Structure to design on (280 residues):
């Protein structure tokens, strides 16, 4: 069914309340922790309601009117008129982030930059001929930025380190943004958007379109839960590396276009607040 043709249903809205409250709880916790107040969040939601109704629920061949947006959202027509055009979702990937992700993805996937196990090789800064090097890695992805500038930026952000042989080594933070790394805020929005979009599409259709599954067990001891978490991390990273390698190879032969694909994995562990490492 075309999402533009759907109309809100009281029954659907009632059914949505409980899962939505659970879904939003960690985001509300993040808002409070980050200093975003309820009035600020309410204003953001108001803008988004108007934006989504304006663009995603327009009728084919008809201009979207303030009155219809008001009907769809429950927001007063005068407020709709004021907000139309505001609060548009941001989908553009920041240039530095896109470049960083592309270089790291290539480092993890290309045979010349990985070892027999598929792990990223330590790279010298430069090398003769076609030997793998950090300069060759960066130049494969972009000619617009000097490899030295990328290296300085990555060292500052602790994405890479210099080993005893003066080779450049990808650190764990190359995989997981931490601290004040601006990638973590971008991926928070993108990954949660894609996960929720897949789940929302699945419950809106008669036949689920997207793969969205989880293995879950309750009533576990904290010790077993931690062991399962550690093992699932290993399985998840292997799956992500495999998917990255196959996508990277296929990309070399792709003619390009405006489609987008995301393969993600999440792991969550919930423990009693008074649990200690020695709990069994």
């Amino acid at each position: 069914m075309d999402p533009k043709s759907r109309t809100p249903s009281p029954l659907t809205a009632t059914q949505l309340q409980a899962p939505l409250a659970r879904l939003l709880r960690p985001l509300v916790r993040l808002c409070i922790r980050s200093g975003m107040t309820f009035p600020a969040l309410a204003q953001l939601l108001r803008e988004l309601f108007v934006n989504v109704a304006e663009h995603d629920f327009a009728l084919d061949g008809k201009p979207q009117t303030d009155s219809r947006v008001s009907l769809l959202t429950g927001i007063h027509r005068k407020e709709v008129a004021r907000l139309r055009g505001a609060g548009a979702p941001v989908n553009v990937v920041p240039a530095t982030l896109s470049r960083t992700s592309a270089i790291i993805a290539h480092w993890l996937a290309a045979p010349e930059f990985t070892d027999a196990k598929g792990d990223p090789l330590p790279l010298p800064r430069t090398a003769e001929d076609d030997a793998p090097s950090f300069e060759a890695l960066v130049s494969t992805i972009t000619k617009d930025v000097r490899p030295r500038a990328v290296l300085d930026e990555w060292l500052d952000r602790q994405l890479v380190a210099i080993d005893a042989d003066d080779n450049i080594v990808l650190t764990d933070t190359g995989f997981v943004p931490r601290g004040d790394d601006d990638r973590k805020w971008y991926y928070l929005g993108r990954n949660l958007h894609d996960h929720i979009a897949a789940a929302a599409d699945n419950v809106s259709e008669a036949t689920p379109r997207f793969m969205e599954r989880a293995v879950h067990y309750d009533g576990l001891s904290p010790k077993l839960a931690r062991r399962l978490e550690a093992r699932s991390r290993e399985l998840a990273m292997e799956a992500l590396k495999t998917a990255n390698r196959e996508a990277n190879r296929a990309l070399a032969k792709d003619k390009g276009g405006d489609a987008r694909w995301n393969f993600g994995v999440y792991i969550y562990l919930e423990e009693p607040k008074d649990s200690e490492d020695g709990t069994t």
About this structure: Strands lie at 160-162, 168-170.
